[in-house]
UniProtKB/TrEMBL annotation:
InterPro entries: BlaI_family, WH-like_DNA-bd_sf, WH_DNA-bd_sf. Keywords: DNA-binding, Transcription, Transcription regulation. One of its GO terms (molecular function) is DNA binding. It comes from Oleiagrimonas soli. Belongs to the BlaI transcriptional regulatory family. This is Putative transcriptional regulator.
Length: 100
C-alpha cells in the first residue's frame, strides 16, 4: 500500500478497497510476509494486453482490425514510422501465408 500511497493522493481505505476488488476478480494474488502482504498480478501482462486488445476490437470495430486502422488513418496522425511498421507487419503476414 505504501508504494501506491507514494504515487497517488488516495487514502489507505481506498487502496485497500481497490486491492480487495482486484483480489476478488482474480487479477491479483497475495501472500503474507510477516506483518504485511505482498501483491502480485495473477495474469501475465502479455495475456492481459492480448485479451483487452481483442475486447476493444470486438466492441468498437465489430471484431475487425481494418476498420480500426481506417479510424486511425482518418482521425489520428500516423507517423512515417507507424506506417512503415504496419507495412512490414503486413508483408510478414503475406510471407508466412505464402510459406504455409
Amino acid at each position: 500500500m505504501a508504494a501506491l500511497a507514494d504515487h497517488t493522493d488516495w487514502h489507505d481505505k481506498t487502496i485497500r478497497t481497490l486491492l480487495n476488488r482486484l483480489l476478488r476478480k482474480g487479477a491479483l494474488t497475495h501472500e503474507r510476509d510477516g506483518r504485511r502482504y505482498l501483491y502480485r498480478p495473477a495474469v501475465r501482462r502479455e495475456d492481459y494486453v492480448s485479451q483487452e486488445s481483442r475486447s476493444l476490437i470486438d466492441r468498437l470495430f465489430g471484431g475487425r482490425v481494418a476498420p480500426m486502422l481506417a479510424h486511425f488513418r482518418e482521425h489520428e496522425a500516423l507517423s512515417d514510422d507507424d506506417i512503415a511498421a504496419l507495412r512490414k507487419l503486413l508483408d510478414d503476414i503475406d510471407r508466412e501465408e505464402d510459406g504455409a
